[in-house]
Amino acid sequence: MADHTMSKEDSLTAAYCLAQAGYKVTILEVAPAIGDIDADIQVSPNLTHLLIRWGLGKRLKEVAVKPEASTFRRCERYGAPYYHTHGADFYRMGYGLAEPHYTIHTNCRVIYLDTSKPTITRESGEVVHADLAIGVDVTLRQHVVGRADQPRPTGDVAYKAIIPTEKLLQDPDLRPLVEKPEMVGRMDSRRHIMAYNIYNLVMVHPDNDGEESWTANGSTDEIRVEFSGWELRIQKLLAMIPSTLNWKLMDRDPLETWIHKDGKLVLLGDSYHLMLVDDAAVLGNIFSHLAHRSQIVLLLHAYQSIRYDRATAIQDSARNANQWADKEKNTIQFAYDADDEAEEWWRKHGHTLMGLCSPGRMQIEVVKLCNRPCQTVTLKDGQTRRNVDERVD
Hints:
By secondary structure, the chain is of the alpha+beta class. The protein has helices at about 10-20, 45-55, 55-65, 70-75, 85-100, 140-145, 165-170, 175-180, 220-225, 230-240, 275-285, 295-315, 325-335, 340-355; strands at about 5-10, 25-30, 40-45, 65, 85, 100-105, 110-115, 120, 125-130, 130-135, 150-160, 185, 190-195, 200-205, 245-250, 265, 360-365, 375-380, 385-390. Helix 1 (about 10-20) packs parallel to helix 11 (about 275-285), helix 11 runs parallel beside helix 14 (about 340-355) and helix 12 (about 295-315) runs antiparallel to helix 14 (about 340-355). The chain is globular.
């Protein structure tokens, strides 16, 4: 069994799931502290299923707000609520869940990754060794893609800001926004504002050639000019904004694979989409079956086969601003249970998959199977070399 699995960036749920499967986990986090995130997090029913299962249901109720807008009431039918919570609270929950099970190094910048071993070199000069590197940072996409992977501008930028609810409660026009929590959208032909319940505003407007960044500061004066003439409550909210971030909205095509050709680096979550918690649950579930290091690559492809089509479809649908109105898409997204999917996949395919792998020394040169298009798999087991064309059905 691999005795040291390494994750990078905000992969607390992945760390927890892999630790539960029996792995030693080290997180290399570039941020100076966990939870320093000033943003709203939407926690959809497919995620609250997992968080409740992991014992976080009570804490989630304490730090989250449940929208009461009719658009979202139907989420309850999926057996778990839809919440809004502050990003810092969400990450602190994950930190508390995973803390007993892993080692974390904050303020840790990675300057080099050797995918063949794998080893990671920190800015301090320390070299960290592992059996598997797990990337949840967009910069690690380039290691898997093998070239520069530049995003495309969408033509929009989003201001993001949080207003203390105490201020809203002092204004009779704004008090109902707190007392009856709703996720409210307002829009014109080129701009829109989404208001979340903590009270977080996302204000999308045409791009003015700003920089690509999650942390670039915006101008509160520019916000007020951009949305001048909107209704009175909007003007009052904008006047309360103390500071804002300015996010340039970018798009990328789905990756062909999430696994590096050396088989020792895999991508999760924000490195290619925003469904990190579901990814973490599947990866931990699948890796609970690993018995020998030679099986790592096969299990990585099992993980990818379970998650790839769904993640890619949701990434594509995210370009459709009206997806919330599509009940079929809501059902596909919210009724999903990552653990159930992984367990069902293993019941059907696990025996066949592990039959490809012996406990001897083995190098996987090319692997793409498990409900993906059939390709050649070349295995080396001692002096024996064989090609396998197989699709697991």
